[in-house]
Amino acid sequence: MAAYTAIVTVRLKRGVLDPEAETTKRALERLEFDLEDLRSADRFEIDLDADSETAAERRADEMAQRLLANPTIHDYEVEVVRR
Amino acid sequence: MAAYTAIVTVRLKRGVLDPEAETTKRALERLEFDLEDLRSADRFEIDLDADSETAAERRADEMAQRLLANPTIHDYEVEVVRR
Fold first, then answer.
1. Distance (Å) of CA B52 to CA B5, B20, B44, B74
2. CATH of the domain at A67
3. Which chain regions cross the lipid bilayer (chains A, B) (predicted)?
């Protein structure tokens, strides 16, 4: 067993409205910042023990599918690093 | 001018309670996942045009300080990539 951190990034799929990101973008523009676009995402950093990096990645992927992401509106990606 | 994406990751400072992360951790445990810890963070992906990578990073850093992060409770980091 080794110690890993799985980073799961959950984003809205392209085409799904993101009013929070739109509000943040407008607030930055009101502060006179120049920007082309702003997207927001949720990032989960999950510490877990697993037999291998592959096993850690598989478990984090299952966590994303079962709880962290909603497949109707979200895409997600998983990255695993040693801790 | 070149096109960059600045990725701003905003985390709660160590010691600041994160009830949402705690709830997510417990929900995963109820689904019988094994995990040691879970932290959540907000990730902003900001497309902007700037004269250099340094200028893009400086602007994103200012956005974090003025709006995206609350210095009392948050740490943040900025990463800039060409788009």
1. 12, 38, 20, 27
2. 3.30.1280.10
3. none
The number of domains in chain B is 1
Closest-CA residue of A relative to B48 is A35
Please name the member of B48, B66, B67 whose beta carbon is closest to the beta carbon of A34. B48
State ipTM: 0.91
Domain containing residue B7: 2-82
Residue closest to B18 by CA, chosen among B75, B79, B78: B75
Mean pLDDT on A38-47: 97
Cβ contact A42–B43 (<8 Å)? yes
Residue of A21, A36, A46 lying closest to B49 (CB–CB): A36
With CB atoms and an 8 Å threshold, state whether A47 touches B38: yes
Which residues on chain B place their C-beta less than 8 Å from a C-beta of chain A?
Answer: 3, 9, 21, 24, 27-28, 31, 33-49, 59, 62-63, 66-68
In DSSP notation, A26-67 reads HHHHHTT---SEEEEEEEEEEEEEESSHHHHHHHHHHHIIII
The pLDDT of residue A65 is: 97
